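JOB MANIFEST
job_type = single_chain_structure
chain_count = 1
residues = 196
[input]
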Amino acid sequence: MTSSNNRTSEYNVDPIFLDRWSPRAFDGSVMPKEDLLTILDAAHWAPSAFNYQPWRFVYALKGTAEFDKFLDILIEFNQGWAKNASALVFVFSDTLSRPADGSEPKSYRSHSFDAGAAWGLLSLQAIKSGYFAHAMTGFSFDRALSELGAPEGFHVNAVVAIGKPGDKEALPEGLRSREAPNDRKPLAEVAFEGRF
């Protein structure tokens, strides 16, 4: 059993897994590009089927025109808090396996699974670097694909807001009470030996 961040695991996991959560209150500070690239470097070391590495990260740092463009792709609810993030990162994945020999591309079934592994490592490196990451799907998928220049065959999975923790009082009133790490279902509800 491990306890950290007002959470307790059933087994002896590393505290970083309990310390990781998805806040919405960010302090609005500017992030050095090197910090973001460190976080993305960790993410791209994720495992993937056949080492294909289907993930792609399209990012923008606060204070740039690209950041404002990315923010505009989010739904209004997410714009209200993500505007104070230090970076926004769209996570794409290639739905096709494209052989190096130039042969016909084939469907790549685990593209989202692999991109999810990369997101997991991103979120943990963010913690190690003094930041937090909050992934979301509340955005226009069509606009993200077209306005960010996704090549044919790419899927957009999520957008991630990254920043340093801020004052929850800056959030809209309805979100303030929810600004705390949440718990998880008991392990027995999600892990089954042999079959469901």
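[summary]
Residues 111-128 form the longest helix (18 residues).
The radius of gyration is 18 Å.
exit_status = 0
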